[in-house]
Design goal:
Length: 265
């Protein structure tokens, strides 16, 4: 009876080890799966110029889309673009609706707990923007003002730390709605990426908005599921080569109007 009980416990222990080990092993098969099916699902924004948006020809374009297409081309597979938003992009990756996030994704400690990141591929810095007539020289000047920001973003996190208590922060669920709130004067100020603000101002010159305060310099990284080491390494190889041969610099100049600067590796 004692031997039987020990055998049962040993069997249960072996099963538990198998259950724990299998997902990790399976997770690292993503690269081979992508190569076998000859396609890769890439999460990109469709309403976030100049990173990912619909062009005049109704095709996705932007620095993120170009980078995503480059990865697919270098892997020798078809690029399947899946539109994502700020709130759903990480859940989409975790539930395998996409293989990679290529959507102006910043890196922070909270996100690093749930996904992995490649090397950086494009610049992105968050700032406060507002009308030229509104004098904002320091964060103290934000007191009593209203500002639009996308919920859960890095700029939202930074704003909470530096803003005076009387700043009215109005949060929206996606970047397009955030920008629209500022353009329609629902708020006096806007917290977003510099390139995004520039694109919005270009389309709406009547706003006469300008850069006010820097929130944070936060380059873009590609998101990879935890444990997918082979895919992570391969994408890093592609990005490093594109950085070395000037491809990433060309993308940055074309869509962002400035160079990549010093991107963290």
């Amino acid at each position: 009876m004692k031997f039987k009980a020990l055998s049962t416990l040993a069997g249960l222990f072996a099963s538990a080890v198998l259950i724990v080990a299998t997902p990790a092993h399976a997770a690292d098969e993503s690269l081979s799966t992508v190569l076998a099916k000859k396609s890769i699902a890439l999460g990109v924004a469709s309403d976030f110029p100049p990173y990912g948006y619909m062009g005049a020809d109704f095709k996705l374009t932007g620095v993120d889309v170009a980078t995503a297409q480059l990865i697919a081309d270098k892997l020798g597979v078809k690029a399947e673009f899946v539109p994502v938003s700020t709130p759903n992009r990480i859940p989409y990756l975790q539930t395998k609706k996409i293989d990679l996030i290529v959507s102006a994704l910043g890196k922070n400690p909270e996100r690093e707990k749930v996904i992995d990141f490649t090397v950086a591929y494009a610049p992105f810095f968050q700032a406060v923007f507002g009308p030229k007539a509104l004098s904002i020289k320091s964060f103290d000047d934000l007191a009593g003002k209203s500002i639009a920001v996308t919920r859960g973003t890095i700029q939202d996190d930074v704003l909470q730390k530096v803003a005076p208590p009387t700043l009215k922060i109005q949060r929206f669920e996606d970047d397009a709605t955030t920008v629209a709130a500022f353009i329609s004067q629902q708020t006096q100020l806007l917290a977003t990426g510099a390139a995004v603000a520039a694109a919005a101002v270009q389309k709406n010159p009547q706003v006469q908005a300008e850069y006010k305060l820097l929130l944070k310099d936060s380059p873009n990284f590609i998101g990879v599921r935890k444990g997918e080491t082979a895919l992570l390494n391969k994408v890093n190889e592609i990005l490093r080569a594109a950085k070395a041969d000037g491809t990433l610099e060309q993308y940055s100049q074309k869509w962002l109007g400035r160079g990549t600067g010093v991107l963290p590796d």
